[in-house]
Amino acid sequence: MGIRSRIFFIILSCLFIGISLAFVVAERDLAIGLQEQIETELSKQAKILRESFAQSEQSREPINLKSQIDSYSKASGSRITLISRSGDVLVDSSIAMSNLISLDNHSNRPEVIAAFSNGFGSSKRFSNSTQQEMLYFALRDVNNKPDRVIRISVTNEYLDRSLASLENSMTLIVVVALIVAILASILAGNYIRESLMDLERAAADMSDGSSKIKDMKNLPLKRSDEIGSMARNISTISMNLKKQISLIAKQRDQFGLVLDGLGEGIMVLNEDGLITFRNDQIMQILELDEIINLSIHDLEISALSRMFKKAKKKGKFDSEFELETAAEDTRWILAHMNQAKATQEFILVVHETTQLRQMDSMRRDFISNLSHELRTPVSVIKANSETLLNGALEDKKDAKIFSKAILHNADRLSEMVTSLIDLSRIEYGELKFVIESINLNQIIETAVFSYNNKAKKKNIKVAFNRQKDFVVNSDAKAIERVLNNLIDNAFKYSPENSIIEIKLKKQGDSIRLAVIDQGEGVAEEDQDLVFKRFFRTASARANTQQGSGLGLAIVKNLVYNLQGDVGVESRPEGGSEFWFTIPIK
Ligand code: ADP
Q1: What is the Cα–Cα distance from 510 to 515, expressed in whole angstroms?
Q2: Residue 441 in contact with residue 466, Cβ under 8 Å?
Q3: Strands 316-324 and 330-339
Q4: Are strands 499-507 and 461-464 parallel, antiparallel or unpaired?
Q5: Which of 177, 229, 288, 401 has its CB 3.0 to 4.6 Å from that of 15, i.e. a possible disulfide?
Q6: Whose CA is nearest to atom 11 of ligand 1?
Q7: How far is the CA of 408 from the centre of ligand 1 (A)?
Q8: Could you give the maximum distance between any two Cα atoms of the chain, in Å?
């Protein structure tokens, strides 16, 4: 029910009760007042009659009074009855004298009894003689001997009419009250509604969380009545609520940031396996789209479904499983699921262990490669030493050959160990670079010159056409080392009577330096692998040429540390082109 209807009913009820009470009281008072007034009037008339009877000599005989009583009755509109002490009706204005005999004895009438004992009496009742509601007044006439009672009666009509007119007035008042109630309820309702509208709007804004300071300013805060105090309360509640909400939001954001920054993927499930929370990390690790409100089984990761079932039984469960990704590579996931005692929710924490596993496998490969590479020179040294000890030492010529082999392999071992140490120093960033302006032409020419003897031995021509000055800001020693490694390899893997060419060119913001040979080249599938530690192509392994497979790994690390890039391309005409870039600035 609206506020206006309520006010209407309240006003109407109040008016109804008020008017009804007023009506009852007024009707009662009016009836009493009128009755008293009529009685007074009847008493006066009775007294007049009594006096007129006293003056008349004939009055002793009731029959003689009939015409006087009739004419008086006609004039006054009342019924006049003369009653003897024995209760007989002596004369009655409305009944012929001959019919009086049929009337009841009146000695038991209350007004007659009162009149004979107190001098006068009155009553109101239904008359059998006239068949109407009547008001009676009786006066004892002591002037006559024996005494008698003069009774004057009138119908109740006047009283009834007065009361009926009161009822009419009351009906009119009720109608007016109804109209007043409607108008008052409309006015009061509108007034209160207007006053409450701003409060209602502010409360509605609060309830959907969109309350703004601007809305609060529209509240009737300055009013001194109850609406004003309600507005002030709403404004305070709203402000407090706002502070609380922003505090909670801040805490939630901070919590979210912490969870996202953890690196671990986190998911919370309810007892039925419905996902109620997740951080961004878990979406990336498990390669999922939005999962809130989905069941853990909907993720279609059987390992997780299994974990949930086990964790439900045991309270917690750990597992490491493989995940097939969209790119069809395999990811390793380490997952831990625990049921929170307080909320009975399940918390899933996942880490990606692919990299750890890869590193572990790399470590294992490295150790196995290293042992393999070290074993060859060590076994050669061992075998030659044994041969020497077993007698070869006696033969000077043999002793020289075996000692040379030992020295050569010892050199190889030492070279390998130095390369390994260098590589790890470069990888761990321990090598300090001295960045300065370098003229690449000069570095290349020096390198080419140092390979003169080697070139002559294999009849290889090292071709480099000095070009316009290419100057870069970089570390000269590192570049020399990279260049020497590439030229070394070119000599190692080139046939005799061939050409090794060195080329410089500008490429974007860098200078590209290439060492091109006419050797066996590098097959496409090996082009990335040759830069890995210990990797040697099958033909290189088969070749008697010695090598550790560490040179290009050092090259790659050095170039990357100098912010450049490195690669190899096979040439259609045979041979390979190893290149690297150095940023100019
Ligand atoms: P290594 O000591 O074996 O030369 P590197 O790391 O320098 O080690 O080279 C790795 C592998 O790359 C070599 O074993 C060889 O198979 C291949 N390689 C390097 N340079 C060349 C080249 N110029 N031509 C053909 N293959 C090469």
Answers
A1: 16
A2: yes
A3: antiparallel
A4: parallel
A5: 177
A6: 536
A7: 20
A8: 205
Q: What are the C-alpha distances in Å from 436 to residues 276, 479, 584?
A: 58, 12, 11
163 alpha carbon to ligand 1 midpoint, in Å?
Answer: 132
Give me the pLDDT at residue 513, please: 96
Nearest alpha carbon to residue 74 among 51, 49, 46, 94:
94
**In residues, how long is the chain?**
585
Mutate to test the pocket of ligand 1, among 489, 501, 539 (most ligand atoms within 8 A of CB): 489
Residue 256 one-letter amino acid: G
Whether residue 542 has pLDDT greater than 90: no
Question: Which residue has the least CA distance to atom 21 on ligand 1?
Answer: 489
CA 509 to centroid of ligand 1, rounded, Å: 28
More confident of the two residues 34 and 555: 555
Average pLDDT, the chain: 88
Of 253, 219, 222, 255, nearest to 238 (Cα)? 219
Q: What is the DSSP letter of 340?
A: -
pLDDT at 495 over 90: yes
Ligand 1, CB cutoff 6 Å, lining residues? 489-490, 492-493, 517, 519-520, 522, 530, 535-537, 540, 547-553, 576
Distance of CA 380 to the CA centre of its chain: 75
Q: What is the pLDDT of residues 151-204, one digit of tens each?
A: 999 988 877 887 888 788 888 888 887 888 788 878 887 887 777 777 777 777
Rg of the chain, C-alpha, whole Å: 65
In eight-state DSSP terms, residue 274 is B
Tell me, what DSSP letter sits at residue 328? S
From atom 12 of ligand 1, which residue's Cα is the shortest distance away? Answer: 530
DSSP class per residue in 474-513: E-HHHHHHHHHHHHHHHHHTS-TT-EEEEEEEEETTEEEE
- Taking CA atoms only, the protein residue closest to ligand 1 atom 20 is 489
Per-residue pLDDT band for 53 (boundaries 50, 70, 90) equals confident
pLDDT score recorded for residue 57: 64
Lowest-pLDDT range of 94-103, 169-178, 201-210, 455-464: 201-210
- Pocket test residue of 411, 426, 460, 492 for ligand 1, highest count of atoms within 8 A of CB: 492
- When pLDDT is cut at 50, 70 and 90, the band that residue 376 belongs to is confident
Cβ pair 448, 483 in contact under 8 A: no
Q: Which segment of 55-69, 92-106, 245-259, 437-451 scores lowest on mean pLDDT?
A: 55-69
Q: Facing residues of 136 across strands?
A: 123, 153
Backbone angles phi, psi at 19, to 5 degrees: -65, -40
Q: How far is CA 334 from the centre of its chain?
A: 32
pLDDT greater than 80 at residue 58: no
Indicate the helix (H) or strand (E) that contains 245.
helix 226-261
Count of beta carbons in the 10 Å neighbourhood of residue 189: 17
Nearest-atom index, ligand 1, CA of 553: 6
SS3 311: helix
Cis link prior to 62 (omega < 30° from 0)?
no
**The whole model's pTM is what?**
0.51
Q: How far apart are CA 149 and CA 47, in angstroms?
A: 11
Can you give the three-state secondary structure of 431-455, one letter per residue? CCCCCEEEEHHHHHHHHHHHCHHHH
